[in-house]
Amino acid sequence: MPFFSLRARFMVVAVILTLGSSAIWGGWTWQREYRSLLSSLTREGEMLVSTMAIPLINALIYEELGIIREGGLLDDFVSDIMTNPRLQTRYAIVLDENGRVLAHNHFAEYGRIYTDPLSTAALNASSFAQTDILLNGERVADLAMPLTIAGKRWGSLRVGISMEPAYMEMASLERQIIIFSAIFSVCALVIYWLIGTWLARPILTLTKDMEKVGKNLESPTIRQLRNDEIGELQKSFLAMLERLKTSEAERTESINRMLENERIAAIGRLVSGVAHEVNNPLAGIEGALYQIEQKGGPQVQRYAGLVRQSIERIGRIVGQLSDLSRAGTMTPKQIHSQTFFEDIEAFALMAIKNTNCRLTSENCCPPTTLVIDRDKIHQVVLNLVLNAIDATCSNHMCDSGNIKLRAGLGRGHYVLSVANTGPPIPDEVAGEIFTPFYTTKEAGKGSGMGLAISRGIAEKHGGTLTFERMAEWTVFTLAIPCHCPMDTKA
Fold this sequence. Notes:
This protein is of the alpha+beta class. It has helices spanning about 5-65, 70-80, 115-125, 165-210, 230-295, 300-325, 335-350, 375-395, 450-460; strands at about 90-95, 100-105, 130-135, 140-150, 150-160, 335, 360-365, 370, 400-410, 415-420, 465-470, 475-480. The strands form three sheets. Strands 2-1-5-4-3 form a five-stranded antiparallel β-sheet, with helices on both faces. A five-stranded mixed β-sheet has the order 7-9-10-12-11. It is rod-shaped.
């Protein structure tokens, strides 16, 4: 669709509203003045015929009594009606009860009998009546007033008043309304255009600021945050930039994690072939060492023990590497959360059996179905517990060492945490602890593969393995997606 700016849309709406309001106002004003003018004209006409009805009745009574000659006063009254300065009277007729003309502004009509519908309606009317007619192309209001007194009808008075002056005045008013509406609309549109330009300026400024945002997503320098809807838009834009920065950081972290996983997978593929080649010579060395131990003396036994320790260490490293190569193979099965927690609690108790550490366990998870590779998750938890024991006892203050094992539900995940007291993980190495072959333990006590393998197992289950420091506690948290709650009666 073609570009249609907000200012243009605002102007279109403003034009429609201005013209519509002008039309409504002009029409309402014209109708009001029209009704007022016609009503005023009608009232004046009614007052005229009502005022003249009384002397006309008196004149008819005087004529009937013979006090005055017939038609004398009536003609004078008709002449007064025709010369009324406030109204443009076209005719004035006095009819008796039979419709005969008793007085007329045209003397030739005297004595004629009117049987037309207007005359008949005027004679039958019981009060003032008005009928609008067209007389020789001119709009005329026919006013009729019955001549009655004391229940006796003497006839009727008909007066025709021209409506053309009123319509001419209304036409002039219509022109004035149109001219005023046009001037008002033009002025309003100019004002609307200035307002639209003023309102669009901060949006255009914000657009320019948005265009300045580069690849590094640095927030632009906004000179002033407005306290209106534009200010809300500015705040939303800055918040969006912050979200984009967070998303970019998460994307970078995901890429790094993916590369690390690829590296672990490559190591696993390499180790799967190397482990077999290493184990075979180790088996031969171990057999030969056994023969040496059997035939050698105490001195030989001493050095043979050192060699066996080295062989066992190499075997452990090869075994861990083999575990790393098999970390992608999962055989998930359903297991009750309570049963699973009891198993890992038993493992943890066995792990601290020969230490001075104290274990506190808490299962806050309702009965839930877990679909996991139980052996792999046991391996993860046991590795975390062993690391916690090493960290707790590393400062030779085992009497004060504590380990907490806790399970619960959070945001659709089964959450298992292992917390321990002891020296915290330094900030400078916090980002490296999940890296393969990275370890903070003394030489010969760790290969640096445990946490890397554990996190790989967690991610294969669709979960996460994270750590955080909380006061004097170091907490490792394993979160695994869980399924619907189990039937507790089963």
